Amino acid sequence: MTGIRATLKRGFDRLERLLDTLFGSDWNPLANLGPLGWFLFWIVAGTGIYLFIFFDTGVVNAYQSVEWLSGSQWFHAGLARSLHRYASDLLVVIMLVHLVREWSFDRYRGKRWFSWFTGVPVIWFVYMSGITGYWLVWDKLAQYVALTTTELLDALPFFAEPIARNFLTPESLSGRFFTLMVFLHIAIPLLLLLMMWIHIQRIASARTRPPRGLSVLTLVALVIVSFALPAPLQGPADLSTIPARVGLDWFILGLYPVIDLVPPSVIWTGAMLITVLLSGLPWLPPRKEAEAAQVFLDFCNGCARCEDDCPYAAITMVPRSDGAPFPQEAKVDPDRCVACGICMGSCPSSTPFRRSGPLITGIDLPGRTLERVRTEVITAAADLSGPGRVMTIACEHGAAGVPAKGRVILPCVAMAPPSLFDFILSRDLADGVCIAGCAERDCFNRLGGKWTEERIARTRDPQLRNRVSRERLLTLWAGPSERGRLPEALRDFSARVAVLGPVPKKTSLAADDEATADLELATKDNPT
Ligand code: HEM
Ligand code: SF4
Ligand code: SF4
After folding, report:
1. Which end of the chain has the least Cβ crowding within 10 Å, N or C?
2. pLDDT tens-place string over residues 265-285
């Protein structure tokens, strides 16, 4: 399983780099599958509402209304129909690729089970929305879909009378039954929307909107396809005959030929087994997770930076419980915390400069404390010698390929507070710091790379001090297919910092003082 996952991940990574060159990194569709799924849903919903203005929901006139809107009103209502269809098809593709990608990036196990588990019913709802949509056109394809689906449903012990009987003769199809199908085609997408919303509830700052350029590009592509290949109509349904051949929409109805061939009991058993297996995948096998982050109230001033930065919505701010003069304190939900350490990097108390007493911060990882990280950094410095000494702070998901000498690996690069880079340079532990994380936009923890960049650029707290020379910092974001370039990039960087020489002593002392002052701001005796 791990081998398949690693191969798939490398494949995605390669393809993504290729798409980077075509679309630019921000608009890369592979890095925007979830947001694109939402965008496509809204296109389908918008065009669906527009179609209902022209669509006759009665069984007798449904086909004529679709024929009319596709023919004489092709430039708006016909366009809406084709867009409705092609956006649904693309949604199916995007959803399945998104599923495989999240699996191959291992973002579905352990405490991250929730999005995966709630994604499984999303698959059912997407398909059911599409299938009920095909019934409404009431052409030959609709007849085929209605018959095959109801025969399948009749195998379930839910219906007092076989519903397939509704489609045996022209007289047997009642207007009421058709109205029920119309209702289902509205209700199921609404349930899909609800499931999609639940799906992202445990993801902080979930991206539900693709970059504007990518949205425009997707819409334009769909409009072009809609004009070039308008959604077909396959002649009115005729229940006195059995349609011999129908053109299928393979994206939504691709399994229908199988349903035709295989007994319904086998189909249902297979569907249930796949659903149970998919739902249980996050626990097959379960991921061993490190102990959840812990809050140390003596060093927490309730600033809520950790809550803002946690990618898993695992931190909430609650009323103060220890009588300290701050209105709130951080509280970690251990069932959601994956021990990425990002909160430790965002806490103003996380400064490695402190000299007296044990190094405790506002929020720490019991299995990997700030104090231990500081010791590791000091130990790693002993491996470095000569001019151009570079220490690498690498993330455990993107670090392979970075030379082991002078390297400290963290669960996520954003676990390193910016003051750690300051500490390394001002304490003369290295002449330069390389921060090596997952490929851009592919951070295993979703937001670690972004937060790190923003802290260095001083657009996010805690900000890296201005006095830390940016020339002495290198950020390297690399996916599995790019790891080969890391050693060379490090060699170049080392040569550059060798030219800069050692960090001037004056800067290091001033930085030290300021960092200590910063720590004081964070403690309960100084509520400023
Ligand atoms: C219409 C279909 C779907 C839509 C619109 C959708 C949307 C999203 C969005 C917006 C995100 C957050 C992306 C981010 O902010 O980085 C996400 C994450 C995720 N989705 Fe989906 N999704 C869909 C279907 C599925 C399915 C079928 C599965 C799997 C069964 C799935 C599994 C996941 C997982 C594992 C994550 C990552 C959770 C994490 O990072 O902890 N999704 N999805
Ligand atoms: S370690 Fe911190 S940032 Fe990471 S999941 Fe746990 S609470 Fe959130
Ligand atoms: S002081 Fe640290 S632990 Fe407390 S709320 Fe701020 S970031 Fe979180």
Report:
1. C
2. 999 999 999 999 999 999 988
β-bridge mates for residue 294, sequence order? 364
Which pLDDT score, from 0 to 100, does residue 189 have? 98
Q: In whole angstroms, give the CA distance from residue 57 to residue 205.
A: 40
475: β partners:
435
CB of 107 shorter than 6 A to ligand 1: yes
Ligand 3 centre to CA of 301 (Å) is: 6
Three-state SS letters, 142-157:
HHHHHHHHHHHHHCCC
Q: One-letter amino acid identity for 340?
A: C
Mutate to test the pocket of ligand 3, among 297, 301, 331, 524 (most ligand atoms within 8 A of CB): 301
Among all bound ligands, the one having the nearest atom to the CA of 415 is: 2
DSSP 174-241: -HHHHHHHHHHHHHHHHHHHHHHHHHTTTSTT---S--HHHHHHHHHHHHHHHHHSPPP---B--TTS
Distance separating alpha carbons of residues 439 and 14, to the nearest angstrom: 11
Q: What is the DSSP letter of 24?
A: -
Segments of 233-358 assigned E as strands: 294-295, 315-319, 328-332
> pTM of this prediction?
0.91
**299 CA from centroid of ligand 3 (Å):** 8
The residue whose CA has the least distance to atom 3 of ligand 3 is: 362
Ligand nearest the Cα of residue 361 is 3
Counting ligands in written order, the one closest to the CA of 411 is 2
